[in-house]
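The authors assume throughout that readers already know how a fold can be written as discrete tokens. A single example would do more here than another paragraph of explanation. An entry of this sort, consisting of the sequence and the corresponding backbone structure tokens, reads as follows:
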Amino acid sequence: MFTLFLCLYRIAEGLEEFKEVIIDKSLNFTIMANYSMEEIIRNVIEKYSLKGYVNSNPKEKVYTNMDGILRDGRGNSLSKAQERKIRGWHWEHFNDGNHTLLVIFHTEQPVNYNTGESGVIHFSSCISSKGISFRAIVENNFKEEKNSFRSFLEKNSKEERGEYTFFNWDKLIKVTEEETIYKNNSHNIPNDPLFWLIEESYGYSFYTQQNVYKNIPVIYFANWPELGEMFNDIINKNITPKANNSQTKDIKRWGSKESPIPNKRYIGVNKQRETLIRKLIEYYDLNAVIFDRQEKKIYVNIDGQLKDGEENVMSVQEVNNIRSWHYLSDNDPIYAVFRLYIQAEDKSYATYFSTCITDEFISFRAIDEINGQQNTDYSPFYRLSWDEIKEVKALENVDKDNPNLLKNDPTFTIWKEDIDANVFYLRTGEKAVISDTYFTFFRIYVVCAFLNDVLNPQRIEDREKILKYHAIVDSYEKIKNMENY
């Protein structure tokens, strides 16, 4: 008996040592089976800053329950009436027990019917310890159509209604982020009303088996991108321990836009767009811009070399930096670079902002350095192909709370006041807000017009036709006046 007791004691002691090893060697996160799903989800809410999320669009809301009350990013509680309404939309989620509602994503999307009437589509998702559910609800003339889209269908000649979708956490194996979900994809929610409005969207694929999944557009998550890692932490029951002050620093997050490091290098040249960009550079005199400070530069490539407004060729070192920061190979042509840097007098820190324009894309990069070492907390990279962009608009007085900024854009660690920006409206329905620092604070409306002309070659052709017409008219008037004289 004593021998059996001793063996059991040593086994238990070994398990306890093994548990300690896991905890000691995993300072950033560990997996603990003895946490409830509610605790895991609340841990994830804190890790990914859902609790304090405030969207600049009041029609897009995230509510989190950390203390028994659902609150938005400003701490305002969700009214009981609104909570009951949303629970009603997702009644299947809660019909077999009193599951705690931990997160609500809610987007109100105004719609205009071809009859001249208007309405609202509510896209929402609910997260509980049981699972996650999705539903779209259409309201016409403020009369809700629960579980049916009949009124909307009649007005738009559609044939089927939208559906309720639910995933149990125990049945999910992974979630992936999808840059483009197309309208007719067989893995979409059947007759998702979002695709009555647009052709494609960014979103997520929820997998229950390797090739069995459902596409959920980002509008069901209050248009919050890049949540794939968050969902996978819930699925895998990952817990992030709260480290003490000596282990971590508290970083306040803002913005959301970033791109993964490209797997493939840029290849080939679109000659038509190359010609267009070079033509527009001269049309907008970007090849003649001279700043009174060396910190600001616009380099353009008209003849094969990047030069500033004084015809100074960009140094080899700086070209190499730009190529490295924007993940370009040595032979890839660059047609324009906007570059700004800010440096402390003692050179203890420096921040470099740059925009790189090629024939295929426009990319933005900030490099934040402290004592010569890159601070990756504030060094976002974001790339857009020209084909992704619908239009660009100038926007004044942008603040740090705008969720469509580059993720942790260091602009807002340097300038505390509001700043101007260019807003890139994407064909997916998303938008990206790029602060003016990435364009060297150079005449925001000129930059905006230049970018839109790259996107719409017809604009400059139309202007040239008008100028040619006016030249012909002027010439005719001069000849006519001479004959009369």
About this structure: The chain has eleven helices and 22 strands. The CA atoms of residues 10 and 296 lie 68 Å apart. The first strand starts at residue 30 and ends at 31.
